[in-house]
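Page 37, continued from 36.
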């Protein structure tokens, strides 16, 4: 295993053993849960200012071509980090001998951050590079490099190591501190993502520990992070319990309303909170109406959408672009395409220019309704206006394609520089799932390789989708191979995936034992015994055939169901 910074390792170990709790004397926090104990750094950090980072060759060359050379060096480092079968100690050895060193240069300041971004789904490789870069003479990590590494560690739940890096960012007693509210917001979002609300709240109250101001804006950022990852009920509880510290305002209530409307998508809870705003005397603004209209629009309740839209006019609340987009989506979803296009013209008449989201509000429901020609007409109109399609635009069209050739043709058009929109991880996951359903495994592996080549390596969700798709197609050995690869990268498999593959492994081991016993039994007996066994085996096969279900769409074997 590679060596990590003494400060990071020592702090992580002490952090795990610490029985103390962080005093929360200010602001009277309402969720008193286990806190994070911050310990002093073991040795002072360099007091030199943080410089922007870059790569350079270990040579005396200087001059032009820095951008091209920088890109080549980034690819060289990434290739080492992503090379399969490498242990982290071997990766460190290759980095030491690759002829590349880290220096401080403003002209190539994004190199370290770029490398971390490309290997963000493999935390060990990213951390190995991060530690290796920190040990290079004359180099100090930038704030962006720290934030990138902390985000990677938080995504893989390596919170102790992430906190150690934050402590390292403080710069000791005399050095400059790199810790900002954004630093803590990264940790808050990562805790919210794993639904550890208590740790998220404790991190919010840790602002004072780092001499950072805590105001309404920081509190609203906490509420937004909680709602973004479906912790809306906890966010609402925080809002009401801290009313004496953070006074109520429309923005705070709109954050919770948006959580119920667009994250959870519960009409019942949205209506309840909408009435609560009225009881509390909170003024409903255009953002409030856009949230509730969007909720009814997704629920296909056109009557409610139009009623609220007219209510806005009566109350002289000017509708913004989000309100218009939600109403347009509701009209298009209810097959009132002409009325939706007329509303687009109404927007323009009031000085609100339609954007890509406006046309997506038309294209998405048209694609779902299989109105392909109308969707293409709207898409062409979008391009004539000079608006660039977004990833959601392409996803809407991907969902109505019915052949691999069509999918890859659209994928190639998407990659063209003129579009300005490249496929992301959600694109690949959606297409891999679709090709698995179509039983086109060659296209599945083609997309898998392409995803890795584009520098956007597979993450936990990608592995889960691939493993399930291979399993349902009866490719058990391949599914198990990627399952082991997933565990090597320390991605946590879903309980369902774990149970499914472990049961298959157990049944496979049992079958192997029975097969070995059968072979031994055949050797001990004579040829007559073999004939008897073959006859019995044929009878068993006939019985198994009679016991098979009438439909041939699903094949059941060893307790599992596979597609025919």
């Amino acid at each position: 295993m590679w060596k990590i910074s003494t400060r990071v390792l020592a702090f992580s170990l002490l952090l795990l053993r610490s029985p103390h709790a962080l005093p929360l004397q200010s602001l009277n926090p309402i969720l008193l849960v286990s806190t994070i104990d911050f310990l002093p750094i073991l040795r002072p950090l360099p007091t030199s200012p943080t410089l922007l980072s870059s790569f350079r060759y270990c040579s005396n060359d200087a001059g032009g071509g820095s951008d091209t050379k920088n890109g080549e060096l980034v690819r060289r480092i990434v290739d080492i980090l992503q090379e399969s079968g490498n242990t982290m100690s071997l990766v460190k050895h290759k980095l030491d001998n690759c002829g590349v060193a880290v220096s401080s240069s403003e002209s190539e300041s994004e190199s370290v951050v770029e490398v971390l971004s490309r290997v963000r789904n493999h935390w060990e490789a990213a951390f190995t590079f991060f530690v290796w870069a920190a040990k290079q003479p004359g180099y100090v990590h930038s704030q962006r490099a720290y934030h990138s590494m902390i985000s990677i560690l938080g995504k893989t739940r390596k919170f102790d190591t992430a906190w150690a890096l934050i402590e390292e960012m403080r710069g000791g007693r005399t050095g400059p501190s790199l810790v900002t509210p954004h630093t803590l917001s990264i940790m808050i979002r990562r805790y919210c993502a794993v639904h550890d609300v208590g740790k998220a709240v404790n991190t919010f109250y840790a602002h004072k520990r780092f001499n950072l101001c805590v105001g309404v804006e920081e509190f609203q950022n906490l509420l937004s992070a909680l709602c973004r990852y479906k912790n809306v009920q906890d966010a609402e509880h925080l809002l009401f319990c801290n009313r004496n510290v953070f006074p109520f305002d429309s923005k705070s209530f709109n954050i919770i309303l948006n959580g119920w409307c667009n994250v959870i998508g519960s009409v019942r809870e949205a209506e309840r909170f909408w009435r609560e705003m009225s009881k509390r005397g909170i003024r409903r603004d255009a953002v409030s109406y856009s949230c509730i209209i969007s909720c009814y629009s997704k629920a296909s309740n056109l009557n409610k959408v139009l009623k609220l839209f007219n209510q806005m006019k009566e109350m002289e609340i000017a509708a913004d672009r989000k309100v218009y987009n939600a109403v347009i989506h509701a009209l298009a979803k209810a097959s009132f395409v002409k009325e939706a296009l007329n509303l687009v013209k109404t927007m323009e008449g009031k000085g609100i220019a339609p954007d890509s989201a406006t046309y997506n509000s038309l294209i998405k429901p048209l694609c779902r309704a299989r109105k392909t020609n109308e969707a293409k007409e709207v898409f062409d109109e979008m391009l004539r206006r000079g608006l660039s399609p977004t990833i959601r635009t392409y996803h809407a069209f991907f969902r109505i394609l019915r052949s691999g050739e069509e999918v890859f043709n659209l994928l190639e058009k998407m990659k063209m520089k003129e579009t300005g929109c490249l496929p992301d991880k959600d694109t690949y996951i959606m297409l891999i799932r679709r090709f698995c359903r179509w039983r086109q495994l060659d296209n599945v592996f083609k997309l898998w390789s392409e995803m890795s080549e584009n520098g956007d390596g597979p993450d936990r969700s990608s592995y889960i989708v691939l493993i399930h798709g291979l399993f349902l197609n009866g490719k058990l050995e391949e599914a198990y191979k990627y399952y082991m690869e997933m565990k090597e990268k320390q991605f946590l498999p879903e309980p369902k995936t774990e149970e499914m593959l472990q049961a298959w492994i157990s049944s496979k081991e049992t079958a192997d034992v029975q097969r070995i016993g059968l072979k031994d039994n055949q050797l001990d007996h004579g040829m007559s015994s073999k004939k008897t066994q073959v006859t019995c085996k044929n009878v068993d096969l006939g019985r198994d055939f009679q016991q098979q279900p009438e439909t041939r769409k699903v094949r059941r074997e060893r307790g599992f169901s596979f597609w025919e």
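The radius of gyration is 29 Å. Flag for discussion at group meeting. The CA atoms of residues 68 and 449 lie 25 Å apart.
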